[in-house]
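Bumping with the actual sequence this time:
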Amino acid sequence: MAAGGRPEERIATVERETAESKVSVTLNLDGTGRSDVETPVGMLSHMLEQLARHGALDLTVRAAGDIEVGSHHVVEDTAIALGRCLDSALGERVGIVRMANALVPLDEALSEVALDLSGRGYAAVDLLSENQAGEFPTSLARHFLESFAVEARMGLHVRVVAGRNEHHVIESAFKALARALRAAVARDTRAPGSVPSTKGKLR
């Protein structure tokens, strides 16, 4: 608790700069779904906005890079920065719900996400098809989710139950991630101040 009995702020900023990209991410876990996202990859920006809105996260992202050789570097480095930002904002992970899942439809697409903010990075991501969705193919969406999970130190399972349209498949997966994150990072009112692990720590 902060002074006066107020909960500690769970806000973090991470900057990542390489020869291939420059990314800055600010994340507030106790936000209202506001986003301010600028990337050179339209589908990536759209998915980050979905993550903020449906996860009730306040998110600011600025990303730039060598998009002339493809979108891989910007997408990957944004995932890394976002994952590290989530890890930092969670701090010692005291008093959180920790585990959650969500099943989210989008027209013909249906995606299921289960996650555990365990302090250990692992990802099992099944997005079915390998087709292109603009400059953001499903294979790159999978790589984003895998990189994000590892850097956030969470266990992440993503499964597409149904879907034909690549845009719908990716978007339903990101919305399911958002809903699961929203529940998992929530403060556990039944166990405030306790670490949700029999080991006594999640770091």
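The tokens above came from a reply further down the thread. The radius of gyration is 16 Å.
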